[in-house]
Structure prediction request, 127 residues.
Amino acid sequence: QVMLVESGGGLVQPGGSLRLSCAASGFGDYYAIGWFRQASGKEREGVACISTTDGTTYYADSVKGRFTVSRDSAKNTVYLQMNTLKPEDTAVYYCAATNRLLDLRFFSDYERFFDFWGQGTQVTVSS
Prediction:
């Protein structure tokens, strides 16, 4: 059974940090893991993505310089380190995996091609 399980969400003050984890199980190699988020009343958007082929990372402009995506292949886990958090980062964060050979520079536009999704974890940035 394919499973992606996110953890690490919570309440943090503006300027603070959180690290999200995405543990993958139940399937073999996948091409990429992406992090997406959905704020209340808004469409889901891509945040960051990492290629499992060569470790290349990609970010939405809104999080560049603040968020870092990384992978521990031994643990089959992908992380999203989020620093200098802002109230507008408040959302449910999802990790998703794809086996498709996508051009990951446009991962945010290819959300529909990420076939496996976690249940999401809430991140709230508020004072």
User: Anything to note?
Assistant: Residues 10 and 123 are 5 Å apart (CA to CA). The chain has a mean pLDDT of 94. The two ends are 40 Å apart (CA to CA). The chain has no helices and eleven strands.
